Amino acid sequence: NAGVTQTPKFQVLKTGQSMTLQCAQDMNHNSMYWYRQDPGMGLRLIYYSASEGTTDKGEVPNGYNVSRLNKREFSLRLESAAPSQTSVYFCASSRLTEAFFGQGTRLTVV
Amino acid sequence: RKEVEQDPGPFNVPEGATVAFNCTYSNSASQSFFWYRQDCRKEPKLLMSVYSSGNEDGRFTAQLNRASQYISLLIRDSKLSDSATYLCVVNSASPGFQKLVFGTGTRLLVSP
Fold first, then answer.
1. Of the given ranges (B30-44, B80-94, B95-109), which has the lowest mean pLDDT?
2. Which of A78, A109, A108, A71 is nearest to A93 (CA)?
């Protein structure tokens, strides 16, 4: 029973590098989300997808792009990483009530 | 103004104490409300939903006041294992879809 799976768990990038964070859920949920969590800032919504084929900006979308590849997968791409994107990234999915989170990706941009 | 506001704490309490957390939200159209728990360096997990009539789950009681746009969580008989950060969460989107907005969390430290 995997739930929400995120990869990678840890990543160090140099400024200007690009990377994609992967997220997959096996609960047949329609809605998926990407959050970042920074000390003192709480969880902030980057992008969300209400259903397959749709994506919308959240509170802090600048510097990120997303793809809802299919119902299961929702990826987050950093095209040109910046030190300000050092954070813990969480993917989540939900149907009607409870949201389930992945274990997080700890990203450091140097 | 943040959409969901919480006192960051930390709240330091002895085992067996009763502790209460409060949370306010700004979007009067918010549809549903939750408390999540997050342990250090782990993902958030649902603790309980919050209903207008108030609801209880063992030692935990949640209350919602829509008129004041206020949510509370009461923990009775605190255990060491209750030490965590408690996140107030509001669904600010239409029914049937969740756009979850998180507070910054309130940290609880329960000591022996």
1. B95-109
2. A71
